Amino acid sequence: MKTALYNKTGEEIGQVVLPKDLFEVSLNSDLVHQVAVSQASNRRRNIAHAKGRGEVSGGGKKPWRQKGTGRARHGSNRSPIWRHGGTTFGPDKETNFKKAINKKMQRKALFMVLSQKAKNNALIVLDDLKFEEPKTKEIKNIFENLKKKIKTFTGKGTIIALSKDDKNSVLSVRNMVRTVPMQAEDLNCLDLLSYKYLILTKNSLKNIKETFSVKKEKESSEEE
Which H or E element spans position 198? Predict the structure, then answer.
């Protein structure tokens, strides 16, 4: 598959070939959903916690004697039926929400989402995105130039996949609203589904090929 190659001014300066094994994978929505749910669960921070009867203050002494008072029997004011007592079946910070999923499924789902980005014109490839110093204004100008040339691009909800050495680009992009800088090798199904557009550079596209190439994966499995 071929796609247009743009420069910083938004001009189309040529075409770039997208790897077939990464950008021409048929969609399996069930697999993509399964991988996205597992990744969301694995990122979940378990902070909700209700104190049980062993964690609330008080107790240690029987409220009143067992017999002879005419009242119901109680052994502790930490009981869940008492005011300020412990919570029964409340959320527990020890709950494990992690869902295991193998690497092949994760990669396959990633390729499917990348393919859909390319198919739906939500993938933009730039010739270069390096800056001498961090400047958010330059990124904004690039977005404005792309909006003028690409009618389907609005700039709202964008992941910019950068190569390993683009530190200035990371510092420039991170102040943009709904725009996330990310290393190309860290692309994943969940983040790509959370943002509409994906911007790559020639270097980051090369990194994606090196990191996620199906041929490379087959060679490594054969060596094992």
Answer: strand 197-201
Number of H helices, E strands in the chain: 8, 6
Tokens of 205: 């596209």
Q: How far apart are CA 88 and CA 76, in angstroms?
A: 15
Cα 201 to chain centroid distance, Å, stands at 20
Start-to-end CA span in the chain (Å): 32
Q: Which residues, 6 or more positions from 84, have their beta carbon under 8 angstroms from its beta carbon?
A: 56, 57, 58, 77
Tell me if 10 sits within 8 A of 146, measured CB to CB: yes
Q: What one-character DSSP code corresponds to residue 195?
A: S
Domains and CATH numbers, the chain: 2-44+101-223 (3.40.1370.10), 50-96 (no CATH)
Specify whether the CB–CB gap between 128 and 149 falls below 8 A.
no
Q: pLDDT digits over 72-100, tens only?
A: 999 999 999 999 999 999 999 989 999 99
Contact 192, 117 (CB under 8 A): yes
pTM: 0.82
